[in-house]
UniProtKB/TrEMBL annotation:
<dbReference type="InterPro" id="IPR002347">
    <property type="entry name" value="SDR_fam"/>
</dbReference>
<protein>
    <submittedName>
        <fullName>SDR family oxidoreductase</fullName>
    </submittedName>
</protein>
<dbReference type="InterPro" id="IPR050259">
    <property type="entry name" value="SDR"/>
</dbReference>
<dbReference type="InterPro" id="IPR036291">
    <property type="entry name" value="NAD(P)-bd_dom_sf"/>
</dbReference>
<comment type="similarity">
    <text>Belongs to the short-chain dehydrogenases/reductases (SDR) family.</text>
</comment>
<dbReference type="Pfam" id="PF13561">
    <property type="entry name" value="adh_short_C2"/>
</dbReference>
Length: 248
């Protein structure tokens, strides 16, 4: 399927590894010009090489509003504008209600909620002016089905989902779509860290019988950015091999 992304300019956050890197690679494979960010210079350079297509590496930490805004601004400068924004960030530390102090919530909200707001504030106004834009947020299945021992992520990403849904309705008439993808268990460093490297055990709990391939997830990101997905907005879509158990 021809996605119509040739020459589009994409900023993909936290793309030095994992699902962000997979999204950047998929967009570049469709002819988009891509800027990525990460916190480690060497890993970022390696990721840019893996993305190919002259991807622009930008050293940035989206864990603060200033860092998130700076990433988008630098991507706009490097690419001459941003048509596609993929928001993404690492997860906060694990923990439950009893073990997580109140003062831990601020950093988690900055990382997984305020970063999304800041990146959208920096990128979406120009998209509205051009009457074409795509925002795809990588969040988590936890916004539909909270994950045990991840109370910070559950809380912050649910807030981001509320923001994204509201934004989607405000900008739909301007040719800008806003969607989020809710990954379940994918073969990423984060999943390995949370499960002591035992992905076979994780796979046993997935109806599909395996953990997700980040490349497949990246392809779904690219589709949501395509001309074919122009009527899809305000959606929060699980990509999870059947893990999400509820009817709606």
């Amino acid at each position: 399927m021809h996605l119509g992304l040739e020459g589009r300019r994409a900023a993909v956050a936290a793309a030095s590894s994992g699902l962000g890197l997979a999204a950047a690679r998929a967009l570049a494979a469709e002819g988009a010009r891509v800027a990525i960010c990460g916190r480690d210079r060497e890993r970022l350079a390696s990721a840019a090489e893996a993305v190919g297509g002259g991807a622009h590496p930008i050293l940035a930490d989206v864990g603060s509003p200033e860092g998130a805004t700076a990433f988008v601004r630098e991507a706009q400068d490097a690419l001459g504008g941003v048509d596609i924004l993929v928001t993404n960030a690492g997860g906060p530390p694990p923990g439950g209600f009893a073990s997580t102090p109140v003062d831990a919530y601020g950093a988690a909200l900055d990382l997984n909620l305020i970063s999304v707001v800041a990146m959208c504030k920096a990128a979406v106004p120009a998209m509205r002016e051009r009457r074409w834009g795509r925002v795809v947020a990588i969040t988590s299945l936890s916004v539909r089905q909270p994950i045990g021992n991840l109370i910070l992520s559950n809380t912050a990403r649910a807030g981001a989902t509320g923001f994204l849904k509201t934004l989607a309705r405000e900008v739909a008439g301007d040719g800008v779509t806003v969607n989020s993808l809710l990954p379940g268990s994918h073969a990423t460093d984060r999943l390995r860290e949370l499960n002591d490297g035992d992905l076979d055990r994780v796979a046993a709990g997935v109806p599909a019988g395996e953990v997700g391939d980040p490349a497949d997830f990246g392809a779904f990101v690219a589709f949501l950015c395509s001309v074919h997905a122009r009527y899809v907005t305000g959606s929060a879509i699980p990509v999870d091999g059947g893990e999400y158990a509820a009817l709606l």
